């Protein structure tokens, strides 16, 4: 089989797109010259694909009926049993539906990808199965994973188990409802601006965004490579730490992974308590324009409890934190669309390219009218700023990330962890299906002022529930130096062991 040769019209289209000013005779001349390039493409086309081996039997699964899916959280249910024994033996897992599982449908929350079936497993899939986990299926996520709420999926809104009129958080929305309701023990989400920690705060469970690159992102749909994080979701701190022990480490296929530690022990210190830990409560993490008093007060009360448990707790001002979301914004806005324009994997990086996904997504522009308002707003903003300023603000923001990270690290040189509300507000009500675009977008993007800075800096951040107010959970977030996940788990386990947040 040979690749299709470019016709005159194909090259004329490129001529006009790049302003080459070739005349018809010159286009014909170049058409003949390109035969040599086409022959090289023929050779590549004939060679076999180089893809990871798929292990563990599975079926495509089923789309559950509403009575089996009370929070609209599942996309596909299909059981994959892991090896007997292992660290995760007996624990059940849901996977966000932007994670490749060979033979199982994946739509990334979007109508434009519906019908696609991956041909590979993401690296993390066999890792958890090798350690005895049982995967129960794929959980719904938000449309292209852009929203921090749970109302944008093409499959309809995901509902919060604590109050079904309210958001379960996003974009790992289905995982949120399944963990919060106890239907699964563990879930894997992704987090580019808070998409694991926001659900953890809205729905009351443990959500870890580990240091950038610690968990391989291979086989997951990216949004922006410098923001992409795998996130772990669980009902308990111990299970979360155990899960990270299994999933962390190099896979040789993800260029996000650099200078990883040698030790992936996150459970040995869980019983040490928090005595002697130094905690900085960041003043600027409170009192945002949309902050709710109940949230700020609950997190400050939680800090007081950590002090009573033996931690040294101080309030510290870090003004640069107030600019963290602004620095993240150009990276997220322009980077997300650059990634889309690059057919979901782009180029100029070494790693595993999921070519079947690239084929499935190649015509997304022809279906963009189907996109929800939040995604349309990102596309409009990215097109304007990229074309008006040639990517300069994306680049400047990336340069400013070093200054932002240094500001956090200066505090972390004196303290073991930072503490603040995960999100400024509790889970809001889901908007009606016919709401206006402004309300739709506001609900999708209103909550990540505290979470987003730690995506762009890559620092590890853990959200745990710290109170119940208005019959909804409140989340607090702990942040540490690169690869200090064990310290975050230690502090979180101490709090969890001494405090029943559901009764306060």
UniProtKB/TrEMBL annotation:
<keyword id="KW-0378">Hydrolase</keyword>
<protein>
    <recommendedName>
        <fullName>Indoleacetamide hydrolase</fullName>
    </recommendedName>
</protein>
<dbReference type="Pfam" id="PF01425">
    <property type="entry name" value="Amidase"/>
</dbReference>
<dbReference type="InterPro" id="IPR036928">
    <property type="entry name" value="AS_sf"/>
</dbReference>
<dbReference type="InterPro" id="IPR000120">
    <property type="entry name" value="Amidase"/>
</dbReference>
<dbReference type="GO" id="GO:0004040">
    <property type="term" value="F:amidase activity"/>
</dbReference>
<dbReference type="InterPro" id="IPR020556">
    <property type="entry name" value="Amidase_CS"/>
</dbReference>
<feature type="domain" description="Amidase">
    <location>
        <begin position="76"/>
        <end position="488"/>
    </location>
</feature>
<dbReference type="InterPro" id="IPR023631">
    <property type="entry name" value="Amidase_dom"/>
</dbReference>
<comment type="function">
    <text>Hydrolyzes indole-3-acetamide (IAM) into indole-3-acetic acid (IAA).</text>
</comment>
């Amino acid at each position: 089989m040979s690749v299709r040769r470019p016709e005159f019209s194909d090259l004329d289209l490129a001529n006009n797109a790049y302003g080459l000013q070739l005349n018809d005779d010159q286009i014909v001349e170049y058409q003949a010259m390109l035969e040599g390039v086409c022959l090289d493409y023929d050779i590549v086309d004939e060679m076999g694909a180089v893809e990871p081996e798929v292990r563990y039997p599975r079926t495509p699964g089923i789309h559950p009926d509403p009575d089996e899916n009370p929070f609209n959280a599942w996309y596909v249910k299909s059981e994959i049993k892991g090896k007997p024994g292992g660290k995760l033996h007996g624990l059940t897992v849901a996977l966000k539906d932007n994670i490749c599982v060979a033979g199982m449908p994946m739509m990334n929350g979007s109508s434009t990808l519906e019908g696609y079936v991956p041909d590979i497993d993401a690296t993390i899939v066999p890792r958890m199965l090798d350690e005895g986990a049982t995967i129960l299926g794929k959980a719904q996520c938000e449309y292209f994973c852009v929203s921090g709420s749970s109302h944008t999926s093409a499959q309809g809104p995901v509902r919060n188990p604590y109050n079904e009129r309210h958001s379960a958080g996003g974009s790992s929305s289905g995982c949120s409802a399944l963990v919060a309701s106890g239907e699964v023990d563990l879930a894997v989400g992704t987090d580019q601006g808070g998409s694991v920690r926001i659900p953890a705060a809205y729905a009351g469970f443990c959500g870890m965004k580990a240091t950038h690159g610690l968990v391989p992102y291979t086989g997951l749909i990216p949004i922006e490579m410098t923001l992409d994080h795998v996130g772990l979701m669980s009902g308990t701190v111990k299970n979360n730490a155990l899960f990270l022990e299994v999933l962390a480490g190099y896979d040789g296929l993800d260029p996000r992974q650099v200078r990883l530690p040698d030790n992936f022990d996150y459970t040995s210190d869980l019983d040490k308590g928090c005595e002697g830990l130094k905690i900085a409560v960041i003043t600027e993490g409170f009192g945002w324009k949309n902050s709710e008093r109940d949230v700020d007060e609950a997190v400050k009360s939680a800090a007081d409890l950590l002090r009573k448990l033996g931690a040294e707790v101080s309030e510290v001002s870090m003004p640069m934190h107030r600019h963290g979301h602004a620095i993240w914004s150009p990276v997220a806005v322009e980077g997300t669309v650059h990634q889309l324009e690059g057919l979901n994997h782009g180029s100029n990086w070494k790693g595993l390219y999921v070519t079947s996904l690239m084929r499935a997504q190649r015509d997304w522009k022809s279906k963009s009218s189907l996109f929800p308002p939040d995604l349309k707003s990102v596309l409009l903003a990215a097109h304007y700023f990229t074309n008006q300023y040639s990517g300069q603000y994306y680049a400047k923001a990336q340069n400013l990330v070093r200054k932002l990270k240094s500001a956090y690290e200066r505090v972390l040189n004196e303290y073991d962890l930072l503490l603040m509300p995960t999100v400024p507000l509790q889970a809001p009500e889901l908007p009606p299906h016919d709401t206006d675009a402004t309300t739709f977008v506001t609900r999708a993007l209103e909550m990540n002022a505290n979470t987003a800075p730690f995506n762009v800096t890559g620092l590890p951040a853990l959200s745990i529930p710290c109170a119940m107010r208005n019959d909804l959970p409140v989340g607090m977030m702990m942040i540490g130096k690169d690869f200090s996940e064990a310290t975050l788990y230690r502090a979180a386990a101490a709090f969890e062991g001494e405090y029943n947040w559901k009764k306060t």
